Amino acid sequence: MKFQIKLPPKAIISISAIIALVMIVSSYIELNQSKREIYQLLYEHSSSLLQSVIISSANTLNSSFEIEDLITERLLNNARLIRKLDSLNALNKSELIKIAKRNSLYRVNVFDKKGNRILSNRIPEPDHIHGEENINRYDELAPILNGEADELIIGLKKAEFSDGERFAVAVSRANNRGAIVVNIDAKDFLDFRKKIGIGIILQGIS
Description:
- The protein is an alpha+beta fold.
- The chain has a single domain, classed as PAS domain (Beta-Lactamase), CATH 3.30.450.20.
- The chain has helices at 9-87, 93-102, 138-145, 187-195, 198-205, and strands spanning 107-112, 117-120, 151-158, 165-172, 178-185.
- Helix 1 runs antiparallel to helix 5 (198-205).
- The longest helix has 79 residues, at 9-87.
């Protein structure tokens, strides 16, 4: 003989509500757990990405500094050679043009004690508003002209009478008679810095 248990409607509703509540709570807990796992994965990924960017940026910065140091040393070596020739009174415009062309220098300028340019490898241009006698760099070269420094790294500077930028150094002339300034067109160096910049790093990572 079988007994059938008949539950009143209120009991059925209560049990159904409890089951539904348990399912909702379980789903909520699972959802939170999934969200935590996703956030953890995102955090780990972003941390790894940030670390990659930091390392790449440091390497980029080091490469840029190393190249700048190499350029600086090359220019200083050229300037010292020109100073030696100047001390032997073996400098003239033709010689400066040859030296600049041979060593891929953009400009070589020789200044007197007052900061006036007295010699340059620049080939005169017809009707140019700035002749050989119209250039004075006393303020820029003051540390050398005042005897406070023997060499000066001017670095990147905007070209004054044309487009583009230059990278320049200066050394004192023999017997404190003025200064010699040597520069190169900085376009290639600046292009290289752009190619290895942080934006390129991020593009590569993405």
